[in-house]
Amino acid sequence: MFTERAGVLNLGVEGIMLLGAMTGFTAAYFSGSLWLGVAAAATTGLAFGALMGLLTVSLGLSQHVSGLGVTLLCSGLAFFCYRLVFGQPSQPPHVDAFATQPIPFLSDIPGVGPALFDQFALVYIAFLLVPLSAWLLYRTPWGLNLRTVGENPQAAASAGVGVAGLRYQALLISGMLMGVAGAYLSIAQFNAFTFGVVSGRGWVCIALVVLGQWDPWRSAAAALLFGSVDALQLRLQSSGAIDLPYQLFLMLPFVVTIVAMAVLARSARAPAALLTPFRKEER
Amino acid sequence: MRLALELRERTPAWLNLALPLAAVLATLVLCSGLIALAGADVLEAYLVLFSSALGSTFGLSETVVKATPLIFTGLAVAVAFRAKFWNIGAEGQLLAGAMAAAFIGAREGLPAWSLVPLMIVAGAIAGGLWAALPAVLKLRYRVDDVVATLMLNFIMFYSMMALVDGPWKDPLSGYPDSPDIRLEAEFPVLLSATRLHLGVLLAAFAALGVWFLMRGTTLGFAIRAVGENPRAARHGGIDILRTALLTAVISGGLAGLAGVGEVGGLHFQVMAALSPGYGYTGIVIAMLARLNPLGVVPAGLFFAAVLTGAEAMSRKTGVPVFLADVIQGTALICMIVALLFSTYRLRLRRAQAH
């Protein structure tokens, strides 16, 4: 989301998450330290955020195609390295996943307590990141500049803001977050890396940011909504209460996104300079 | 002194061929690092890869079979990108075509001779309609075509899985796949002892057809005009909405035919593994071909060879088969970087005094 605010659409998200899941898992597996896994995933994300920046910001290449290239490359690399490191085991290797960390007292609240306050540490961090991002974007000079770069790079440049630098920063931050997101899947939620570990979640994120209208709070709300629908369908599925194919639920975020985009597009809330490469010399 | 990019006045013709070749070469060099990392001999690995894919009649025929859907999706993307319709949705359109073909091919009530032609027509229409949807969304509601076509891929995939796991499940099979098409609906094999099927011919004709469409017809001219300069196109009396919609339908129809070929010539049913990302590989191919319909054929054959040969390479040298995926991603990135050199050239420039 940071990137899109700065006017770069990062279609690399699916691949970067997958690679983050792989490196995070591998690092955690061999070092025994889960946090080292998270750090490895963040570093990987950072590196590919930088590659994305090199392609789209410095070279001014098409963001769609660069993003797809990064996704293809990262997914390929993830599978390649995983097979190289672990071979083809009959039993996929596991790590002892993060234990949940109940927050004293709060987790004892009946009903919502266990759901909200007995979670993986990464979950708390993710939730803390929402107000932090909102604050960064709306309350700091840096955020203002970033938003200007996304809306009107010419104006930003004439006001002395370094467009390229800010877009790089945004891509690096988001690359890092994508890497960690992948690591969350492989070492907290599933405690193993499988080829389907990300399975379209990266694309869902792009959908969620559109749904959230490029706002941290609304994006997080959309993510929560999607997460709870997902959890609900698993629950209903296992209890056999409904007879709907689960594929319909998997499809839901994509359908909702398209409908929402059709409805919202008229109000045109997307950062105006999204997808536009900025070359100083040409203006 | 510093290196600077300078706008070219025109692109020399030899670059059109040299750039893709340079991109492929750069890709192979970059990926050789991974082969070395896997502890294999780089030259031997590439040798095994390409000799198994191209060195024998069987290998060659398998490569051509593999190239068939890739040529279709490559053409689909090339047509769409020409008109600046960013169709990332060839994957979904392929599945739409495949489902239509599998549905028609299994109908008992139809006369046997009509099955194959009907499958082809139905598959093309299904793919075309599935591509028309994001085009309408873009033209009417200003929905971003990249995101829309991408989302529609997943919608189509999950719809298909819901069907073959539910009402359309083959009652004789334990897996989620559709019933087989009738024997009469299977595409004729062109050469005995190979899997070369009718779809191969269709792909070759499609490449020629699209080339003629873009070069020799008014519609082709309109498509290019809309992509290059929509305003001038409107002043020239071109109906932009109609052209954009037609482009989408043609593009989707081509992608749909990729699915028809896979069902009619290879799998005879639809299932989850029908397309291992042929739609996305189509984007790489179209870019490598510089959106030229005739260039799509060699580009498609190249990636088909990589996909076919990777298996043998993996068995023989122990390099993970996923090298093929890495090659695709790297090739795409190398190619778009290489494309910079068709509009710009590197010049050494003296540092200017500020």
List keywords for this structure.
heterodimer, A: 283 residues, mainly alpha, 2 strands, 69% helix, disordered C terminus, B: mainly alpha, ABC transporter involved in vitamin B12 uptake, BtuC, globular
Report on this model:
The complex is a heterodimer of chains A (283) and B (354). Chain A is built from 12 helices and 2 strands; from the N terminus they run ααααβαβααααααα. With 283 residues, chain A is mainly α. Chain A has a two-stranded antiparallel ribbon. In chain A, helix 2 (13-31) runs parallel beside helix 4 (63-86). Chain A is globular. Chain B is mainly alpha-helical and 354 residues long. Chain B is built from 13 helices and 2 strands; from the N terminus they run βαααααααααααααβ. Chain B has a two-stranded antiparallel ribbon with strand order 1-2. In chain B, helix 3 packs antiparallel against helix 10 (240-267), helix 5 packs across helix 6 (145-164) and helix 12 runs antiparallel to helix 13. The radius of gyration of chain B is 22 Å and the shape is globular. The mean pLDDT of chain B is 85. Classes of the chains: A mainly alpha (283), B mainly alpha (354).
Brief sketch in words of this structure:
Chain A is mainly alpha-helical and 283 residues long. Chain A contains twelve helices and two strands, in the order ααααβαβααααααα.
